[in-house]
Amino acid sequence: MSSHVTADGPGTPVVDGPAGRGTPEQPRSGGGRKSPLANSTTWIAGGFLLPALLLLGALLVYPIVYSAYRSFFDASGSGFVGLDNYAEVFSGDGLTAVKNTLVWVILAPSIATAFGLIFAVLTERVRWGTAFKMVIFMPMAISMLAAGIIFGLVYQQDPERGAANAVWTTVHDTFTDASVFPGARPRPDAGLEKQGGAFTTEETVGADSPAGLPLVGIPPADVSDAGTAKEAGKGSGGEVTGTVWNDFTKGGGGRDGAIDSGEKALPGIKVEAVKDGKVVASATTADDGTYSLPAEAEGAQLRLPASNFAEPYNGVDWLGPSLVTPSIIASYIWMWAGFAMVLIAAGLAGIPRELLEAARMDGANEWQVFRKVTVPLLAPILGVVVVTLMINVLKIFDLVYIIAPSATQSDANVLALELYLSSFGGGGNQGYGSAIAVVLLLLVVPMMVVNIRRLRREKSR
């Protein structure tokens, strides 16, 4: 059957026939040229994107390119030094900063994610779980500056001021006997010589006369409630007796080495009898300062152990050279564990419950369900949290700068802090600082690649 073209109105050809009767003929493309409408749309889109591209170039691309260029010059920017700045990054203080940064990247994200996972799983079925999650997440509302100040106070060495040492010393003193009179010492002419932290009589003692052991250097407030010292009597069965007292008379006067009226007893002092370096007997002074050793102490030297006079336990030096980095990492985890918990809890809510119930019906206990079902299903979320925190810790600066004291700041140094100190904090070497910035950028690139690949995989599903 034939068909022919007719005109249906001016200039509009119409295909007539069985396949397309009355259908207007589509105009043919003019050699692949875009229509004016398409060209105008492209220009409009470019016009809207241009301000963003200019800002992106000025605030991101230009600084990166200029920092890479500047890293090859000296502090003044006039002398080309090649890779010397990069070599300096991996030596001296720069090497310490690199090591500490790697410690941060490995420990902080993994521990924070682990705590977030634990919190999210354990609070899932608890009625007050929402309130608990809110409390854990609250530190995220605090700035790094405020958190640094808070933990600077927490880690104070003095237990009267630092919360960490207040708790630590309380636990320590619960299981360890404290010294009775810290800082006490004998008079120079009292016949006691110092051996380490202990004091030992120069002569041996016998049962024929009491052995007085006078001490000084005790604050009056420490003996204000003590009784009056008493002269010990001679032992009836060959015992060695004596008195330990505070040889100090209020207002002055009195006799050195003799018990004067009103002088205070020192109760609770441990006295040991030593022969040939071995302790043969021991006793503790009574409320009146007297003590009595069995007959085995005859002919021995008396020793006041160092435990009587040791300074009180002052806790742990949290911000010392060996613990400053772990302590600061702990403060970071306190802040960011809530962030990890919230993301993981969101992923946990999306896990199909029938999978968990099926695993339980197959005989799996809760630990097996968690390890073989929950964690594998949460793997994408855990990866997001870990990578995000790794990028975050690479630029950690505030906590280290504020918490670490000046004496140990070099031990806690990280790359971001080293960059600031070398470029703007008095170092004045922006060539070296630019090299650190480039190193930080190179460390971030692998994490960016991981994130981009993850996003592409999720998009292709």
Automatic annotation (TrEMBL):
Boundaries of every ABC transmembrane type-1 domain copy: 98-451
**Keywords, A to Z?**
Cell membrane, Membrane, Transmembrane, Transmembrane helix, Transport
Q: Where in the cell is it found?
A: Cell membrane
Membrane-crossing residue ranges in chain numbering: 43-65, 102-122, 134-155, 332-352, 373-394, 431-452
Please name the SUPFAM superfamilies in this protein's record.
Cna protein B-type domain, MalF N-terminal region-like, MetI-like
Under the heading Pfam families, the entry gives: BPD_transp_1
Which InterPro entries does the record cross-reference, listed alphabetically?
Ig-like_fold, MetI-like, MetI-like_sf, UgpAE/MalFG_permease
The UniProt entry's GO CC annotations, sorted and at most eight, read:
plasma membrane
| Region (Disordered) residue spans | 1-35, 224-261
What kind of membrane protein is this, topologically? Multi-pass membrane protein
Gene Ontology BP annotations: carbohydrate metabolic process; transmembrane transport
Q: Which family does it belong to?
A: Belongs to the binding-protein-dependent transport system permease family.
**Name used for this protein in its record:** ABC transporter permease subunit
Name the lineage. Answer: Bacteria, Bacillati, Actinomycetota, Actinomycetes, Kitasatosporales
